[in-house]
Amino acid sequence: MKGIILDFSIQTNTGIISGDDSVRYHFLGSEWKETIAPQRGTQVDFDLNNEGQVIGVYKALNHSTSSILNTSPTYEKSEDQYNLFDWFLKCLKNYANFDGRARRKEYWFFRLGMLILVIMASLIDTILETDVIFTGLVLLASLIPDLAVSVRRLHDTGKSGWWFLISLIPIIGMILLIIWFARDGQSEHNQYGKPVK
Q: How many other CB atoms are found less than 10 A from the CB of residue 11?
């Protein structure tokens, strides 16, 4: 079915599509299958499951890169062209999305970005002699996206996100998580969605 995105919220990771049948459909961000975040006014193709819920939302093929509500052209990158900043931004756009899967690049580039931010915040704390105020703020602000990308990474390897709780076991838990996070994702569909690469 064809439609147009009326709205999308990064905070709730949900959106609304106006279908060609003049019905409004709510969709989850995990059903968006493109590399850039959904934008208001984008024409899309989507399917409905047996319960009438939106699944598999794709940008319409016959639609130009400019949307109806925003006439300025947008530049889209494929994930092969992503740099550190793009991967980090992708995790932040999926701020509280615990559904779906995350590939190794997404997880490890987010980790690298966080390391750089923590080092910069530590330097600011040292220069301003503020103990750990800025470092604490960075870590607090990144807590939810950190958990979300970790859960999605576990999903990619076929494990439940609840396995992240194994990190509470000192040393052994962390070693197991590092092994799982470094493992290549499943190349077939699993209960958490289709392969991400």
A: 7
Model confidence pLDDT, tens digit, residues 28-46: 888 888 888 888 888 999 9
Tokens of 7: 């709205």
The b/e string for 83-109 (b: 16+ C-beta within 10 A; e otherwise) is eeeebbbbbeebbebbbbbbbbbbbeb
Asked if 38 contacts 26 with a C-beta cutoff of 8 angstroms, the reply is no
- Domain termination site, one of 76, 98, 129: 76
Both tokens of residue 150?
């970790």
β pairing state of 24-28 and 14-19: antiparallel
Express each pLDDT in 98-114 by its tens digit.
Answer: 988 888 989 999 999 99
What residues form DSSP beta bridges with 15? 8, 27
* Mean per-residue pLDDT over the chain, rounded: 85
**Of 46, 76, 106, at which residue does a domain stop?**
76
Give me 120's structure tokens: 């910069």
Q: What is the mean pLDDT of residues 89-104?
A: 87
